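Researcher: Next entry in the queue.
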Amino acid sequence: MTPSSIFLPLANGSWRRYLHQDDAPMLLERLEQERLVALWTWFQALHGGRSGAVLAEEAPIFDLILERLCEPVGSVEDGGNDLFSVIPARMGRRSWSRALFGAGLMFASTWLESATDEPFPIEANLDQLVEYIGNEPWMERARRERDSGCASDQDPAELTKILLHREPLLELPIEALARTVVNETGLDPWRIELPCQARALFFLGAIAAGLEVPETVSGFHENDEGMDEDQD
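Model: Structure for this entry, 232 residues:
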């Protein structure tokens, strides 16, 4: 399967509202500094994002889709000159951070809208999103969307690029979190595979779409505190 045949499932046009001038500032409001700190705390927590491993362990197909969305359209097999002409495009910080942020925004916007019949989206958090992703049969959904011709043709990285053109300040939270990932992992730009921690940008896009960050304490959720103490 070539990178160009990969698409993000469950991504209708609900995210297009953020292209409107009146709704664009909402993204900045949801990505203030304290929310980035809260997101990273949840992302690293054992009962949270597990530093990105939660998707690889509970939704490996979906996780692979996210990673493929970060790949360049061209490859050595598709007639590229050599491996070194592919890796920089694949691993450049702006490339994967914009692709994953756009994917999170598109996916969470659609999920929030489709999860209720009410005129307004439901209130939900990242734990609920992860639970949904882990329980959905993504092979079946992707095949159904592809065969019915309703698969999204919007490139998540291109969407982020459009949003950045309309609101340049959006680059600050995206770049800040991407830098945190690089500092945390010592990410070598010549590595072929993305580290699990890069998935933080997907969840950044999700909170930009309106999801809440669950509260965490000392690496575990507040609701799990009593349970953990009972086990000691």
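Model: The longest helix spans residues 93-114.
Researcher: Noted, moving on.
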